[in-house]
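Supplementary Methods, section 5.1.

A reviewer requested that the exact input to the structure prediction be made available. We therefore reproduce it here, unchanged from the version used in the analyses.
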Amino acid sequence: MADHMNDHVLDMFPGDTVTYLSADSIAEVDQQSVYSAEHLNSLTLIGLPPHELSIKLGTVIMLLRKMDLSCGHCNGMRYIVRQVNLRCITAEIACGEYSGKILLILRIPLSQTDAGLPFTLRRRQFPIRPAFVMTINKAQGQILQRSGVLLDEPVFTHGQLNARSMAVARVCLICSVLLIVKVTFVITVFFLLLLCVSTILVNKDDQI
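The structure derived from this sequence is encoded cell-by-cell as follows.
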C-alpha cells in the first residue's frame, strides 16, 4: 500500500522522473543459475530499495542504511532530494536536529539474509526509497509538521494502541493530523485521539 501511494504522489509531483535500476545477484554460487535476473528484479524486500527506483528533484526519500551517525545520517532519516545524476544523489535532511545537513548518496551493495528466501539476495542500488508515505512502523520516531493517517482497516492488536499512538503524538499540533478511517473503526480512533491529547498535555506539564 505504501509503495503504491508513493508512486501515485510521485506521478503528481512536478519535474522529470529519474529512474535507477539495480544490479541483482545471488550470493550462493550453487544457486546463481537457478533463478533468472527477472525474478530477482521482481523481489521487493523489507529493508532493501526497489529494483526500479524513481525519484524527482524535491521529493522526499528515506535512508535505509547508517552512513554517518555524527551528522545524523542514519537508517530511517528523511531527506529532500536536491540533485540527481547518474552516479550520485545529493539530499538534504528534511527536519529535526540535523536539518539542512547534506549527504552524497552512492550506489552500494546491499543484502538481506532473513527474508525467508532460499538464497541471499544481493542488490547494488542507492540505499533509499521514496518516503511521501510510510508504514506505521517506519513512522514511529518521526517528527512531522503535518501528518495523515490512513486506517482503512484495523491495525492495532492488544497492547499496541499506546505504542502506535506515539507516532501521532509526535506531530507538532494534534489538529494537524488527518485520520482517514472506516466507520466501524471510529471507536478505536476516538480512544487513540484521547490518548494522544493526554500524552501531549503530560509532556507539556513535564516541560513546565
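The helical segments are 2-12, 37-42, 136-139, 161-169, 186-207. These observations are discussed further in the main text.
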